[in-house]
Each structure stands twice: as structure tokens, then as C-alpha cells.
Amino acid sequence: MRLRAWAWLALTSLPPLVVWPATRPRYGGTLAVDLSAAFNTLDPAELPAMLSPSIAETLVRINARGEIEPCLAVSWQREAEGKRWRFSLRPRVVFHDGETLNALNTGPLLLAVLKKTYPDVTVTSGGQTIVIQSERALPDLLPQLADSRAAIVRKTETNGLIGTGPFRVASWEPNRRLTLAAFEDYWGGRPFLDSVVINMGPARATADLFDIPFAAARRILPETVRIWSSQPRELLALIASDVQPAAWQALALAIDRAPLVNVLAQRRGEAAFGLLPQWLSGYAFLFQSSPDAARARQLVAPLRLAALTLAYPSNDSFARTVADRIALNARDAGINLQPAPAANGNVRLIRWQLGSADAATELARLAAMLGTSDRAAALDLAKPETLYEAERAMLDSNRILPLLYLPSLYGLAPRVHIRETSPKASALTPRLENLWVDP
Amino acid sequence: MARVGFALWFGLAALVRMQAQPAAQAAAPLAARISSLLPPRATVSLEFQNLTALAPAESSSFRSALEAELRTAGVEIAPATQPESRLRVVISENPRGLLFVAEATTKDVRQIAMLPWNAPAPAEAKPRIRIVQKPVFEQAEPALDFLLSDSDSQLLVLSATRIAAFRLTGGKWISTGQASLTPTRPLPRDPRGRLEMAAGDLRAYLPGTTCSGAASPSLRLTCAPGSEAWPLSPRDPALQVRWTADRNTLEADGLRGAFYNAAAGLFASADGKIENRASEPIVGAEKWGSDLAGIENPCGSTPLVIATLSGDAAASDQIQVYEIVNGQATPASEALSLPGPVTALWPAETAGQATLVIRNSKTGNYAASRLGLACAD
Questions:
Q1: B183 interface with A at CB cutoff 8 Å
Q2: Beta B317-325 vs B304-309: how paired, if at all?
């Protein structure tokens, strides 16, 4: 077998949604999946994004256009100026253990989740109708319900995750292996695959599907492997914990993102100047700037800066290379920035994953992470200026400095095919229920 | 051949939302927003950028329209030498469609205006000669099969959840009724179905479910579990097939395996091969996909098959007519490119026609048409 370095990926990779064979999908077979990141819980909110919606579903979901669409709820009405929401549940939906989905078993599950966000919320259940009510308007209820934390799931002593999705949990060994089986009674049609075996740990290129994390070392892949690439979805950014504003502005001027993209990310990512990537906001180019080390030095000169620590996640070799590069840029500006694998420092390098194609929801999540939720209080997708202005304000707060946006990469064996059902299908992860394999 | 409009009912909201607005129409509202950012009778330099796949002609048309609208609004566009204000207009996009962004800089003050705009519809591939394609309707919901009657003025559409009836009035399909289908099993993820009308009896065959009723005086159907057998072609009652429950394949008595479709004694088997009844591979059919339909030959007596062509194609698919001679398949037409994968290909109820449904890869809509054949000379 001929091997090649993954620097060659650019020539072979597939954009999302490209695999649509003229042959109809075939049923049967087992898909072997290797994921490099281990997980020790079946909590839908903690599962990898590729797995969670295939097992556990939500009332609504966000499609690739960033629109809310029906899932376990087929329709909804907003009443009383957004203080009351009435949802009609999809009929003939069953949980993996055979219990029928209805308002009586769904209502308490929802209430427990929603109480964490809306303490005064009440949930009333009757037949196939659920009414969610609060004393105050709930404008962001739909995105909240689309979040995997609001997945409608149950658990028993013997089964840690009973959902309604196209796959059910067949066996589970925390941090080692998860086996999924096709759910024959899935409301959206049985998946093509009979089963999926997910092994955790170092990903083998011999698996049918495996993730390709960005790492310091180049990965060797068999020549036959195709690459599925998502839209840029992971933001690498610096967070200021304890940095003078002038020093922060100097650092922003000093950073040269081109080597981060072209060398470290092997041209697989894009430079990030804004918080949302260009494909999602459409206006990220407005934040673009050029490095200006001379101006940075002017800003630093009067400051008498002590050495600063740049903390990056331990065991993350890619983050380490990025941190080293940033330290070099900082030194050129007269800033002594010392990378260290630690949780805290004057500056932190973070990796932040987009969860959906809804720009407003993602900006609100980022604002919450930065502790500036008030900045995202009036986002309106129909008025993109509201998003731009909120993003501008968050960037001007001298708290966050975007560096790089990376896509998710998966290797696909030749026998694996993807049948995407809609241009609205997710552009962020491949969906297991849409995969099929040659015999 | 004129496309017949599909009237207002299910799926139309999605359809309407995806209808294109020509980019040039965005010029007036964008010019109004830009002029509100500028001093009265401002002189600006204009920088223009297109970050999208919008065709150069349309981009150019938009720019011309914008310049005209700005002049109408009292904005003077001048060369970049010492203008009062600088204006940068960028055609961008996000998951919701096009986004026009204007950045006006007067002295050191920078102001931004944005205008979201629906993405334009993709240009459709035009059919070539020999295969004659007659579009019938388009809808957002998957169309599994359809029947035309009464000189093509009545239409019955089988979808995954209903059968809908329409009458052609003034060039538009007007809804005359619908009957919900209640499949006893969830339909496969690759939904398929067949609609049949015989002596006033209407029958819908779905994997795991068979529905029967009548189209008149009112549309009514009753569904029952089970995959009943039906003739694959109205003109070949010998081959009775039935759906495999919960799957996208067919079965027939006397055949050992499941298959996707069959015509002229050839079977597109579930393992991806084109075979005859004896499971022997067919020479010349190696490039076929998994859908085929028999169709009468208007230019001779050789059996003809319309087949999809295999391959990993995202945005398009192809069909081609083949002659079947001595068990071998020979191309009899040019391949016809389609702007999306074929989701249904069946022999039609009318001789000399086939039913085709594709899913347009860019709009996501299901486009149904009738295929006929014409002699090249």
C-alpha cells in the first residue's frame, strides 16, 4: 500500500455534501469508526457532535442554513409575546426501549433541562402537546431546545442512554468503545448501516471513518483514503486574563496569521480576525487587518511590561505549536510571552467549537463564554448589522483575539458513501444515519 | 417546452423562500442604505468586490444597477483621487444567501450597511436531443411517483405522507384534494413508492405498506400493513414486484435477490450489478446506476431502456437510452445531464413515456418530469 503525507490532503479532500452516488444506498454492514478523543459519559451534551444527534434527538434542530426546523416537535406557536410556547409532538415516535414519545413522558425531561436556564419556567403536558411558559419572554427558547443539552432522553440502570434517534446504544465501555445498532423503528426511516463500532484512542487509518485531529506531527494516510472536511468550525483564540489594554492591542498588531494557516494548519484553515468565520457571518472580511510589528513596538515601548504567560491546553501538540508561533510574534513586538501547558495564565489559548450554522446562536454562546452576554441581547439574523456590531463590541473589549478557524476532518475508506438528503443537511459533521457501505 | 407552474400548497413556503431574487434588484435598497450613511450630494470613490460564486455577468449587472441607483440618490461616483468618501461594496454570502456589505469611510469615520438577499437559483442544465424531457411540477417534499390523466390535465402526486390531486387550470396546477397516507412502518431513508390506477382503483405501494382507494368522486385511501405485489410496468404484467419492507429495494417471485429496478429483462441488483434473470452480468451496462425503466422504441422494434449512470456526483446525474440486443446494452442516445440525482425513474402509465423525479442539488426541490423519445432524424 502506498502511503502519503497528509500535506497532500488538499488535493484529495472532499467538501461537505459531495458524495452522492448515482447508485442507490445499500442497507447493511458495520461501520468501524475511530475517534481520537475518548469520552466516558453517554450524556448527549458530552458526546462528540457526530454521535449525539444520531442517538438522542431534540424537539427542534438547526439546519445548515441556520434555520430552526422540526425534529421531535412537528410544529410550534409563540404566544403571549414569547412568554408561552406551544409545541406539537411528532406522532408515532418511539424511544429505543419501545416506549411511545408523548407529552407526559417528555414534559418532565424538558422541565429539568429548561430550569437550568429559565428558573421560573413551567411545562404543561397533555396528549401530544407541550406548553412551555415563563413570566418573561423566551426569545432564545428555540435555539435552547435545539441544543444537545435539551435532548429528550431517558436512562435506566442497565441503559445509560435511551433516545429516539436512528441508532440505539448496543454496548458501552467508557473511554474504550461504543457500539450502536440500527433502530428499526426510527421515525425517519431505519439507517442504512446495521451497526457502528466506535473505538476511542489513537485513530487508525484502517478504520472506515476516523477523525484527523490537527497535530504537530504530520499524519500518514493510505492513498485510498478520502477526506471529508467540514466548513471551518473550530476557533483558536487568545483570551486575556490579566493584560494591559495597550499590551493586548500591541499583541493584536504583532500576530501574523499567515504562518498559522499556511504552515501549521497546512492550509486547511482560515485566518480568523472576527469571532465567526466568513462562511457563517458573511462579513468577517470587515475585521481583516495586517500585522504591524513597528506599531506594536511603539505601543509596548512605554509600558515596561513584565513577562506574560501564555497558557495552552496540555496534551495538545497543535496548540503548543500555535502558542510557540504567537510567542515569536510577541517577542518581535517587545512582549515577553512564555508558552506553558497550563490551565491559567495572563493569556490563554482556547479552542472553541461552533455547534450550529445559526450565527446568532453561536455569537450568543461566544458572548456567554466571555461573560458578556449583554452584548448579544439584541441579535437579529434578519439584520446582520446587529451581529456585526455585537461582534465588533466583543472584539473591542480587549478580551479575545481570534487567530485561526479550523475545519473538522474525517478520513473515509473507499467503501464508505454519504447520502446527504438535503442541501440543508449539516455542514459541520457527517451524519451516521446517512452513511452506507459497499458489501 | 414551457414549464408548468406548481400551485400553492404543501412545500410552497419553502419553495417561495428559495425563489431567486435577481441580484440587480438589490441595488435600489442597498443604494438607499448607503446614501443614508453619506453626507448629502457626497462624492465617493467606489471599490467593488465579489466574494461569491455569483456569475460575472450578474455581478456586473448588479454593479451597474447600484451605480445608477446611487446617482439617482444624489451620490456622485468619482475616480479614487481625493474623493469626499470612500465606498467599498462587497457581495458576500452566508448560509442564508447573499449578503451585500457596504463600507463607507468619510474622513476617519467608518460606517457599515448590510443587505441580506436570497441566493439566485442555479442555472438548469438543458436537455440535449433524442431524449425529450417535459417538466411537470416541482415541490419541496419528496415526490415518489405521479400519474397524469384526462389529456394530462389531471395530476396525482404520491409523496411520503400523502397523495395529492391537481387540475391544470390556466397553466397552473390547482389543488383539488389530498388524502393522507399513514404508513404502518416508517419509510426508508431513501423513500420510494409507486402509484397505480386501474379501472378507477387507485393503489399506492410503499415499502411495508399498501394503500388502496379511489381518486373520484373524492380522493380517499386506506392503508394496510404489507407489501403487496404490483406490475413493475403497466405494459408488462408478467413481472410482479413488491417492496422489501423497511428497505429501498424490490423483490419478485422466482428471483433470488433484491433489486432496485428492472426493465427489458435486466435487473439493477442490490449489490450494484446489472444482471439478467439468470444473474449474468450485462455487457455494456457496467456504467449504469441503480435506476432504469423500459420505454417503447419510436424508431424501431429494439427494446430500449433508460438508465441512470453511476458515479459519485454531488450536483448532477445523467440518464441515457440504451438498446438491448442479444443481452448486450448499447448507447442509443446522448447522455442527458440532470441538475441533481435521480430519485425516481419508472415506466409511465402512458406508452412511450417514463416518469422521472430528480432532486435539484442546489435548491433541494424535487422536480418531476415526463421523458419521451424522438428519432434523431
A1: no
A2: antiparallel
- Residues in chain B within 8 Å Cβ distance of A186: 186
Q: What is the pLDDT of residue B330?
A: 83
Per DSSP, the three-state class of A257 is helix
Query: Which stretch of DSSP H or E encloses residue B316?
Result: none
Query: Which cell numbers hold the place of B187?
Result: 419509510
Residues 101-120 in B contacting A (C-alpha not used; CB under 8 Å): 101, 103, 112-114, 116
Q: Is A2 helix (H, G, I), strand (E, B) or coil?
A: coil
Contact A380, A360 (CB under 8 A): yes
Q: Is the pLDDT of residue A422 over 70?
A: no
* Residue A388 three-state SS: helix
- List, in sequence order, every residue forming a beta bridge with B208; answer none if it has no partner: none
The shortest C-alpha distance from B78 to chain A (Å) reads 23
Please name every residue paired with B77 in a beta bridge, in sequence order, or none if there are none.
Answer: B44
Nearest CB neighbour to B96, from listed A381, A385, A434: A381
Tell me whether A25 touches chain B (CB under 8 Å). yes
Interface mutation vs chain B, best among A14, A17, A24, most B CBs within 10 Å: A24
Residues B310, A21: C-beta atoms closer than 8 Å: yes
Q: Is A421 on the interface with B (CB under 8 A)?
A: yes
Of B90, B114, B289, the CB nearest to A23: B289
Q: Closest Cα partner for B159 from B174, B179, B173?
A: B179
DSSP conformation class of A38? -
pLDDT digits 0-9 by tens, B42-53: 888 999 999 998
The alpha carbon torsion through A397, A398, A402, A403 (nearest 10 deg) reads: 170
With the C-alpha atoms ordered B328, B333, B337, B338, is the resulting torsion angle positive or negative? negative
Q: Which amino acid is at A119?
A: P
Residue found under cell 368522486: B217
Record: contact B112-A187, CB cut-off 8 A? no
Instruction: For residue A61, give the nearest of A423, A427, A426 by alpha carbon.
Output: A426
Report the residue of chain A nearest B33, measured CA to CA: A385
Interface A-B, measured as beta-carbon pairs within 8 A, has a size of 127
Give the closest of A18, A190, A286 to B314, CB-based.
A18
- For chain A, the average pLDDT equals 89
pLDDT tens digits, B123-147:
433 333 378 899 999 999 999 999 9
Give kind and range of the element (H or E) at residue B275. Answer: strand B274-276
> Position of cell 400551485?
B7
Write down the number of H helices and E strands in chain A: 11, 24
Q: Are A66 and B95 within 8 A, CB to CB?
A: yes
DSSP notation for A40-51:
----TTTS-TTT
| Cα of A18 vs its chain's centroid, Å | 20
Q: Per-10-residue mean pLDDT for chain B, 377 residues long?
A: 30 35 81 86 90 89 92 85 84 91 89 80 41 92 93 92 93 92 87 90 93 90 91 86 92 88 90 84 84 84 84 72 81 86 92 92 90 79
Closest-CA residue to B124 (of B113, B135, B110): B135
Q: B56 phi and psi, to 5 degrees?
A: -55, -35
What's the pTM value of the predicted model, to 2 decimals?
A: 0.74
B50 touches chain A (CB under 8 A): no
Cell numbers standing for residue B3:
414549464
